[in-house]
Amino acid sequence: MSLGNKRLHLVFTGAPGCGKGTQARILKESLEIPHLSTGEMLRAEAAKATPLGLELKKMLDEGNFATDEMIIEMVSNRIDEPDCKNGFILDGFPRTLPQAEAMQAMFSGKGIKLDYVIEIQVPDEIIMERILGRYACMKCGQGYHEKFQKPKIYGVCDNCGGTEFYRRIDDNRTTVQNRLINYRALTYPTIPFFEKQGLLRTVDGTGSIEAVAKKVREVLGLGSE
After folding, report:
1. Which residues are catalytic?
2. Structure pTM?
3. Same domain, 23 and 50
4. Phi and psi for 220 in degrees, rounded to 5?
């Protein structure tokens, strides 16, 4: 099967640290469709002076989570933008079964058909190693890993030349364990939901970034670049 120039609407899912964000960014370059990270969308929306943006900013500043309704509205607004007309890749959404059901209803109302849900599977011990070793450039946000993805020049960002880096404060063993527990309780129920609809495609995410990217293309019928 070859998808050619078909418009693709994709969801990348999997446990935290499985590599779904990395794979979504790689795929967006070849497909030339936007990669929509829920976290990035939340921050962008909260920075706007719209009613939704102001409400989101207030909630996030108070340390609260956005409601399902707010997230659905945010995603709905984003996929209405011109750059999504040829498709998009959702990353970090839906996080719960109610969100998955609301997303499908919202897509149906817009005449959008979800093509595939790509689940990246990685054992917990590898996830722990990946998350505890990752860090990013303070200036541009380019991600690195102390073992798997080091800058070409030690201490210098490949992307912008920055020399200051940071680690996420929640990238510690206890927090990661809690995030994995929450993933299984809240997000994993979406897997059988999408599987019943024939949308699920599972990818072994334990190889190198390049090897996993090749597997993603294979399950989508895109072949090698």
Report:
1. 20, 95, 134, 168, 179
2. 0.81
3. yes
4. -90, -5
